[in-house]
Amino acid sequence: MCCTLNHRNYHTKLDGFSPVPQHVPKRGTLLTGKKHVAQRIPMLSGCIYETLRMKHIRLFWFASATLLYTLGVILWGAFVRATGSGAGCGSHWPLCNGEIIPRAPQVATLIEFGHRITSGLALVLVVVLFIWALRVLPRGDMGRRGTWWVLFFMITESLVGAALVLMELVGDNSSVHRAIWMAAHLVNTFFLMGALTLTCWWLAGGGRLYIRRHGLLSAGLGLGLFGLLWLGMSGAIAALGNTLYPSASLLHGLQQDFSPTAHVLIRLRIFHPLIAAVVGIYILGLAVFIDYRVLTMRSMRLVRSLVMLFGIQVLVGIVNVALLAPVWLQVTHLLLANLIWIVIMLLTAEALSQPATLPEHTRVGIFARPNRTRVRTR
User: Fold this and answer.
1) CA atoms within 13 A on the CB side of 23
2) Other CB atoms within 10 Å distance of the CB of residue 61
3) CA 310 to CA 367: how far, in whole Å?
4) Which residues lie closer than 8 Å to 135 by C-beta, 6 or more apart?
5) Which of 5, 10, 71, 134 is deepest in the core (most CB within 10 A)?
6) Do 14 and 69 share a domain, yes or no?
7) What φ, ψ does residue 30 adopt, rounded to 5°?
8) Under DSSP, is residue 168 helix (H, G, I), strand (E, B) or coil?
9) What is the pTM of this model?
10) What does each of the 378 residues of the chain score in pLDDT, given as a tens digit?
């Protein structure tokens, strides 16, 4: 193993804030041999190629590609729901209208059938990722464990999708039963994306998560994740109401929201922006707290990304209501929700893989005095 190492990659150990070994090679020195490899194990390198785990660089990029592809499949599924094409293949699964390949299909059939094909390919990619990880990663490796969860949630995702079709909870079905299943579908989707994100994190050299060690920080992050799940479920129900009961105007939609005779899916829409306001305030406070407690450059970038994405999401949500929830904006809204979930999962991994206690002179946030410095862990 050979790489060029810069001084900026030498900072702190993962298990504490003690300095690295005194013998630090000069800038540009080529490091080889077991001695130098051992020195690099406890450090978060600025270059992903400078960690031992990245000898499986192809596995990491394949997992990242699987994550992006799965995100595309999720967005296509939102398009299927928003266009009312979920019943395009009837109540048949895995067949489409009783056929392997539909003949003379309509537009709704093509949309639904395309979603099934892309979903099947996503399952194949996850199986390949799982087998690949079993072959090249040792037992007990966190990346290998992550692929187990990815495979599990991908299978449950497929089963939930099949259940929606077989129980005819698609198309124009407006039952509360369907709303519950849609919320469960959203939760499983977030779990799948979270498992894929953490797997990529571990394959890139990320450390083990120490949940019990961090106490208050772990509880705060857990509550934030639960809040985002709660917000996502309310958003799934609100989107379903917008699809089944479109409003003629903004004023008409507000009147429906507060009408006691309106359908339950319409009356539930009003709770989504209220939940978004509560969760948004909490996420902002959590971001400030994490930025104060976790002293790495990566955490600072993730905190800023989280706050920025959440702000954009709020603006998109307002425009979505004003424009009466067009299909393209519903898909954009879901895209931002998944990006927020990915970022907060990475932030959680970064925070919980760090030491539990920090020296007082290094406690700093982006809102603190500029004379304090951070640990650089790009």
Assistant:
1) 7
2) 13
3) 19
4) none
5) 5
6) no
7) -80, 125
8) coil
9) 0.80
10) 444 333 333 333 333 333 334 344 443 343 444 443 333 333 333 444 344 445 688 999 999 999 999 999 999 999 999 888 888 888 888 888 888 888 767 888 899 899 999 999 999 999 999 999 999 999 989 999 999 999 999 999 999 999 999 998 888 888 999 999 999 999 999 999 999 999 999 999 888 898 888 888 999 999 999 999 999 999 999 999 988 998 888 888 888 888 888 898 988 999 999 999 999 999 999 999 998 888 888 999 999 999 999 999 999 999 999 998 899 999 999 999 999 999 999 999 999 998 765 544 444 444 443 344 455 554
129 with 242, same domain: the answer is no
Q: Please check whether residues 241 and 299 belong to one and the same domain.
A: yes
Task: Please give the backbone phi and psi of residue 167, each rounded to the nearest 5 degrees, phi first.
Answer: -90, 5
Q: Does residue 259 share a domain with residue 111?
A: no
Packing angle of the helix pair 216-244, 176-203 (nearest 10 deg): 140
Spatial separation of the C-alpha atoms in residues 239 and 331, rounded to whole Å? 10
Cα three-residue angle 116-321-192, rounded to 5 degrees? 35
Beta bridge partners of 99: 96
Contacts 24+ apart (CB under 8 A), 309-312: 309/336, 309/339, 309/340, 309/343, 310/280, 310/283, 310/284, 310/340, 312/336
Which domain range does residue 161 map to? Answer: 56-208
Is 95 part of any domain? yes
Compute the distance between CA of residue 218 and CA of residue 376 in angstroms, rounded to an integer: 22
Mark whether 228 and 353 lie in a shared domain. yes
Q: What whole-number distance in Å separates Cα of residue 279 and Cα of residue 7?
A: 41
Output the CA–CA distances (angstroms, integers) from residue 14 to 21, 22, 54, 81, 264, in the order listed: 14, 17, 18, 45, 51
